[in-house]
Specification:
The complex is a heterodimer of chains A (170) and B (253). With 170 residues, chain A is mainly beta. Chain A has 1 helix and 13 strands. Chain B has 253 residues and is an alpha/beta fold. Chain B has a 7-stranded mixed sheet with strand order 1-2-4-3-5-7-6, with helices on both faces. The chains are: A mainly beta (170), B alpha/beta (253). The interface between A and B is medium-sized, with 26 and 41 residues.
């Protein structure tokens, strides 16, 4: 049982072991399967939001998550554990896809000049960051919002307060 | 003088020279054939079959070397790993009879402790002389055996990693860091548990492999692998292989 090998035999077997280890180590892919996606909350939009499937119905239609739309706003917002949110940047995009967000008590909305909601989406914030996740004091979230005719401002409402971004007139 | 011309010489008698290569002094395991080296004289050094040690004594006048099977490790490491057992009485008596004069057996302190041979003792018809400074310089000689084992295991693990790097790089370079972590962890565990684990390099390695594997399993680290059980097998194999290497190697010749 304890018969020793010669060094060349040992080296050869070590190389074979290395091939085996290189083969068996396959990290789990970082992205999850489609079934892992969070349940998307219903996104209600008024009829005058530009959708890839325009409808003449006066009742609000529903934008499906990951549906490509002809244009919209990319909103980068910062959320704090104990302070009102801040809208850091709003960028116009030629094409957007509405992301599925976890349902929560926070809300992002597009309003017209009368304060009427043209588009709204609820979302949750978890103040966790890093791997493994650890509590953090602030969190940055990027939203995709569709273009809406007559949009005047973008408003984010959280339990700590709200942030408003006035959309510049063309 | 050759073994063919003298019927009284031991059958495993060897002659010099022992050639050195550039890496001779750096190699942890470098075995030469076990047996008696040099002209038959009254000063017999008992050491391991490490190439650099044997070559060291070959440069000293009037010294005969009895290279014991230490797996090609230096005498300090082989003693700490428990690889050097006492030479057979028949071999030493045969040597003394062949020489026909009083013989002194020179041993280092580590073998004196391992075999309970004290300076001035009479063993198998010869005198024992414990003489540490006669042996090649070694920085680890003064350390307790457990740290010598740790040094040997970690150094061997690094040597293994050097070899493992190439096949792993071919297959999947991402596997190198976990392999390195597991191998070094296994080296530390095996060094500390060497004397408590079952006899034999395979079984010691298997024991350490299972311990390391259980730790990894308990930490939940296996979840990040696509083939967790297969990778666990890989970790156990790695530890078994390390344990196997820590019993040394056989001379190529």
């Amino acid at each position: 049982m304890n018969q020793r090998f010669t060094l060349p035999v040992q080296w050869s077997l070590t190389l074979l072991l290395g091939l085996f280890l290189g083969y068996v180590y396959q990290p789990v892919p970082a992205s999850g399967t489609p079934t892992d996606l969070p349940e998307s909350p219903t996104v209600e939009v008024s009829p005058n939001v530009h959708s890839s499937t325009p409808t003449s119905s006066p009742t609000p239609n529903v934008l499906m998550p990951y549906e490509t739309l002809p244009g919209g706003w990319l909103v980068r917002a910062q959320f704090y554990r104990a302070a009102p949110p801040e809208i850091e940047k709003v960028t116009i995009l030629n094409k957007i896809r509405i992301a599925a967000l976890s349902a929560g008590e926070n809300k992002i909305a597009i309003l017209n000049k009368d304060g009427q909601i043209l588009f709204a989406q609820s979302f949750a914030i978890d103040f966790l960051g890093g791997d493994p996740p650890k509590p953090v004091n602030y969190q940055t979230i990027i939203f995709m919002l569709p273009f809406a005719e007559g949009a005047s401002e973008i408003m984010i409402t959280t339990v700590n307060g709200k942030a408003i971004y006035v959309i510049p007139k063309k | 003088m050759s073994s063919q011309k003298n019927n009284f010489l031991p059958p495993d008698w060897k002659t010099y020279p022992i050639d050195a290569d550039l890496l001779s002094s750096m190699r942890l395991i470098h075995p030469v054939s076990k047996g008696i080296y040099g002209m038959l004289g009254t000063q017999l050094v008992l050491t391991s079959n490490h190439q650099d040690s044997v070559r060291h004594f070959s440069e000293m006048d009037g010294i005969t070397i009895f290279a014991l099977d230490g797996g090609g490790f230096s005498v300090d490491i082989a003693a700490a790993l428990g690889l050097l057992s006492e030479p057979k009485e028949s071999d030493l008596r045969k040597y003394i009879e062949t020489v026909g004069r009083e013989v002194t057996f020179y041993i280092p302190l580590c073998l004196s402790s391992a075999w309970c041979w004290k300076d001035g003792d009479r063993k198998f018809g010869g005198n024992v002389c414990v003489k540490d400074d006669m042996f090649p310089d070694s920085k680890i000689r003064k350390l307790p055996p457990i740290f010598i084992r740790l040094y040997a295991a970690v150094r061997l693990a690094f040597a293994q990693l050097f070899l493992l790097f190439f096949p792993i790089a071919i297959m999947n370079i991402q596997a190198f860091i976990p392999t390195a972590v597991f191998l070094l962890a296994a080296a530390v565990i095996i060094a500390f548990l060497w004397n408590l684990l079952p006899v034999g390099g395979w079984l010691k390695g298997a024991g350490v492999g299972l311990i390391t594997g259980m730790f990894i399993f308990a930490l939940g680290y296996l979840r990040i692998f696509s083939f967790p059980l297969l990778f666990l097998v890989g970790v156990v194999l790695l530890a078994i292989w390390l344990g196997r290497q820590l019993i040394g190697a056989r001379s190529f010749l």
